[in-house]
């Protein structure tokens, strides 16, 4: 795919999820996102609410990074984030349930978070996007397919590869291709974790990603300019 830096920027959730991040760091993230023209910023829920210009969306995370909390806690966390201005919520599935083959539990918690988000969003008169992080590097191909199906059938809008924090790794082209093949055009596909260069980013889009979660946004976009080089240090 041939993209300009400004076109690639519109795929990007400009991300800052380091636990030591400060409000000053978040303000700098927002300013950089505005400068670079990214689709959104993605921040920890404890940093909400924040002020952003109308064109910039605010994303946050839920049950992050382990996913190993009860569905009602995830739902409450997501709903609070929505009431505090989040336009998008990226939730982590219960990986233990996925590895055990308990897809009823996985689908049930996604549905619970979806309902809690919708209730909070209705109070704002808003529509809020739900992305589901399946931690694809920790799953087999069959588990990736089943996780995508549970996501699709439970009312989410996107399925997402990774938190960027799991020791198994982040996004891979194989996982993105498999996810895209499974859900087709029914869901968006977000690739995140280890995307550090222009080449990485464009390859993920070519594989089927419709959104990218990265922290090395400036370096990645510089890789699409004459003489530019993609950088390191991505989320």
UniProtKB/TrEMBL annotation:
The subcellular localization recorded is: Cytoplasm
Record's keyword terms, sorted: Cytoplasm, Lyase, Schiff base
Recorded hits in SMART domains, A to Z, give: DeoC (SM01133)
- Which GO BP terms, alphabetically? 2-deoxyribose 1-phosphate catabolic process; carbohydrate catabolic process; deoxyribonucleotide catabolic process
What is an example of a GO molecular function annotated in this UniProt entry? Answer: deoxyribose-phosphate aldolase activity
Which Gene3D superfamilies does this one have?
Aldolase class I
Superkingdom of the organism of origin:
Bacteria
Q: What is its EC number?
A: 4.1.2.4
Q: Where is the active site?
A: 90, 160, 190
Please name the NCBIfam families in this protein's record.
deoC (TIGR00126)
Q: What does this protein do?
A: Catalyzes a reversible aldol reaction between acetaldehyde and D-glyceraldehyde 3-phosphate to generate 2-deoxy-D-ribose 5-phosphate.
**What name does the UniProt record give this protein?**
Deoxyribose-phosphate aldolase
Q: Which gene encodes it?
A: deoC
């Amino acid at each position: 795919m041939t993209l300009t830096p400004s076109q690639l920027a519109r795929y990007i959730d400009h991300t800052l999820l380091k636990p030591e991040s400060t409000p000053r760091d978040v303000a700098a993230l927002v300013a950089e996102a505005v400068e670079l023209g990214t689709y959104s910023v993605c921040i920890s829920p404890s940093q909400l609410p924040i002020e952003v210009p109308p064109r910039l969306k605010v994303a946050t995370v839920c049950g992050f990074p382990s996913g190993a909390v009860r569905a009602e806690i995830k739902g409450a966390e997501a709903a609070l984030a929505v009431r505090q201005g989040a336009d998008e919520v990226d939730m982590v599935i219960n990986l233990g349930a996925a590895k055990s083959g308990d897809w009823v539990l996985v689908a049930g918690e996604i549905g619970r978070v979806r309902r809690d988000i919708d209730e909070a969003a209705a109070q704002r008169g808003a529509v809020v996007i739900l992305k589901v992080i399946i931690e694809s590097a920790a799953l087999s191909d069959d588990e990736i397919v089943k996780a995508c199906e549970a996501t699709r059938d439970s009312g989410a809008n996107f399925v997402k590869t990774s938190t960027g924090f799991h020791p198994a790794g982040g996004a891979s082209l194989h996982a993105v291709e498999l996810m895209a093949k499974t859900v087709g055009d029914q869901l968006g596909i977000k690739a995140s974790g280890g995307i550090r260069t222009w080449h990485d980013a464009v390859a993920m889009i070519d594989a089927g990603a419709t959104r990218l979660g990265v922290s090395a946004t400036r370096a990645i976009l510089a890789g699409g300019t004459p003489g530019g080089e993609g950088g390191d240090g991505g989320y």
